[in-house]
Specification:
alpha/beta, two-stranded antiparallel ribbon, disordered N terminus, glycoprotein, secreted
Amino acid sequence: MEKHYNYYKSSSCSLPSVCAIFTGLLLSSTAVPMVAGDYRDEQERDRIIKLPGQPENVDFSQYSGYITVDSTLRRNLFYWLVEAPASRDPMSKPLVLWLTGGPGCSAVAYGAFEAVGPFRVRPDGKTLTISPYAWNREANLLFHDSPAGVGFSYSSTEDDVVNIGDKRTATDSYTFLTKWFERFPQYKHRPFYIAGESYAGHYIPNLSQIITRKNKGIKNPIINFKGFLLGNALIDNYYDSIGRFEFWWNHGLISDSSYEALKKACPNDSFLFPGKECSQAYSHSRLEIGNINQYDLYASPCPEVGTLGHNFSPLQRTFLGNDGQCIVKYTKVYLNHSEVQKAFHGNSEAIDEPYTTCSGRINVFWKDSPISMLPIFKELIAAGIRIWLFSGDTDTVIPLSSTRYSIKALNLKTITNFYPWYDDKQQLGGWSQGYEGLTFVIVKGAGHE
């Protein structure tokens, strides 16, 4: 039987209650009547009856399966749809697509099980608990493993898996969406948003640009795209770099000499593939930084998973500290169970053993990665697309200072002056500032995700 290829490398992260103000971005929506057709059979085929270890008090529908984006190469992209609870009227809620960065990390493993999804994996690696911070209280969530070779997504050949970059990822995701809406026509014309973090700072603007251009001149588009949310996102190589080095130095993580070396060698290099001089400056700085959780500065690293000290790529996740719990380890164990993969309708012949949460091979072979997304931001803002950027203030990989430099470069007019925001218990949640076409939110005590 023909072998499929899917490569991974381990990972990590965590997202506090951004959902407390998440609803402010979502517009009200109107239910779309169901239309009879073959799609009903496809939906029922993809319906998840019950995930192994799932709690009994679940009142929302789930679907998962594959969308073929290239029939010749048998390139199939995986999705997991988690609808809003029946008690909260899912037909009235918008649809949010979640993309996780890397490049090469799984939206199911990270976006769903560690960030905004309805479940968390318990330490036994077999049972699930309900997350009190799940975004599906306010929206229907569509988690999409992209590109092929990530998570449960796959292609029929190794050459196709490693022939990847920004451009193909965006076109494949657009093809995925157009076909997915045919399978779930009840979501056509529904207000649609995209959310994600990290290297999704490339995925999301690229995909948003395609959708916006395709929708131009259409009064009632099938993909009724309204805006996107990005957290601690890679946006611009230069501004991300100077903001990162400044954050490290200001927080006492590196010496004066390393700070100067990084500023000299790295700002104009590729973030994913830096040159020799920049790599050397990074390596020396990592020795000074030591064994910390770079995705959440004040949390402990996860020793069972490893540390970032011996890995260069700033976006490859190798640990997670969250109150001493290595959540990604539990998630990885859970997703490796054959009965779990079967419940998700995963193609067992295409999923490598063992299942891993990030693809190091995809990260290494990534081809095109533009130096800046800011020109696309400007195009989307001019087109009326709503943009919401949020930064956890303990992330050292793409810290809030990086995002602020990128926003400043957009030269947008301030609409709402900088102010503190509070959660529903009147505790300080962070700070925010409104610009023309863009909102920036800082989340106090939050890390990379």
